[in-house]
Fold:
Amino acid sequence: MDYVNSDKLIFVLASPAGGGYRLGRIICCFDNVFWYEAIRNGKYPWRIFSSDQVKGKDISPYHFDRRTHFNMVPLLGERIERFWNSQDLEQLYSNNWSAEMNAAKANEIITNGKSLLWVLHDTPEYLLDKFPNAKIINLYDENINDVIERYLTTTALFPINIENTKLKPQYENDHAARIRMLEVENANPTYRDFWAWENKKEAFYKDYMLDEYKESISQMLKEQHEKRIIKSPKYLSVSWDNLNIDAIKEYLGASSINENYLSLTKS
Structure:
């Protein structure tokens, strides 16, 4: 199956700590969107609980793995591309990524009429260049300062590395080498640990770094925000203040949504 050109891929794009996984769960309540049913995710998307069995779910109860009954639906976008040299990205998606999609039986899910969903932090135009027929729901922030504060207690604590080595190239690029060197001193580095390594030459983030770290994160998120608030007919832009379920339903070509989604609209 030609996954890259499929129209059964849904990308929920949001700022880190912007509520992307909560919106992802809402969208998985539509009748034509696949839910990653698993004990660790919850049998239904509206089942919310904290757990240390899924990375990130102990930080945010809305978090979920892209796990089918067979395998993990593979990551895409910047988080995996940074381990590759730019000239090799076509190989990533045509070989490694497509093979992992097959391992997760993505072709069967799509053939049975369901769309697959990812929650990502890339910008819409960037992903449309690679996945021209994907459905993109772009969640922009009404208050970027609130997102900055949430980032410091959520995304900053997520692991910087990715576990699926099948998505990585056989070579080690500069980004991968820097993480490997950090892991010599810190076996499980987080995003803020990596920042500390890059900026302070320390393997573990420390409280005295907060002001400088927050300033760095603020700049990054505000730059992303400027790109995210750009609206386009190529994708659907929404915010928590103007979340229009009917518009999303029409955009995705869904017939219905489970009424339990309403419990997810309350933060």
Notes: The first strand starts at residue 9 and ends at 14. The mean pLDDT is 93. Residues 107 and 140 are 31 Å apart (CA to CA).
